[in-house]
Amino acid sequence: MIIYIHGFNSSSASLKAQQLQHWLAARGRAHEWVCPDLPDRPLSAIALLSDLIEQAPTPPKLIGSSLGGFYATYLASQYAVKAALVNPAIHPGLLLRPLLGSVQQHWHDEGTYTFTQAHEDDLIAMDQLSPANPHNLLVLLENGDKTLDWRDATSYYREAHQLIFQGGNHGFTRFLDVLDLIDRF
């Protein structure tokens, strides 16, 4: 089982989630794809993902993008599973603080919610000074990401496996190119 964890305000309809689903299907492994549409509240999202991990017949692999990379880091520390982190968010409680009180629009549907202090508190509660079990983490970064500073991730994940690509963007343009590597990790 591979659990894809989407980013902030995203969903299972995201480009990378769909690319992974098609990549697995082309290899006769469509049944391995799991990508829940996560609740807006971070602790609710973690509870949902934790249930999926605990119910999996074998330890799943996690792939997390942006905020999903933060969630995957947290879950990898809790369950000692492997995780590939794609342009992961570092300390998102602080990063998203300027959004307090703002109405957020989901990327792939008409849903909205207000980003509150409770959202920030959830994120801060899950934050780690450094990632646990860094040997279980594969960090994939494109240094053309204008949303998150890739250097923050290289520093934070300094003990983890890292690949840094020139150019690209926050969406990680090379995702299809690294799926074989992620699969073997």
Offer a few descriptive terms.
185 residues; 6-stranded parallel sheet; alpha/beta; Esterase; UPF0227/Esterase_YqiA; Rossmann fold
Global morphology: globular
CATH C-level class is Alpha Beta
Helix count equals 7
Strand percent estimate: 15-25%
Helix content: 25-40%
Order of helices and strands: EHEHEHEHEEHEHEH
Which structural class matches the secondary elements? alpha/beta
Number of domains: 1
Q: From the structure provided, what is the oligomeric state, counting identical versus distinct chains?
A: single chain
CATH architectural arrangement: 3-Layer(aba) Sandwich
- Unreliable stretches (pLDDT < 50, length at least 5) are none
Cα end-to-end separation: 14 Å
Radius of gyration, in angstroms, nearest whole number: 15 Å
Q: Would you report the number of β strands?
A: 8
- Main sheet strand line-up: 2-1-3-4-7-8
* CATH fold topology: Rossmann fold
Q: Give the name of the CATH superfamily.
A: Alpha/Beta hydrolase fold, catalytic domain
Largest sheet: 6 strands, parallel
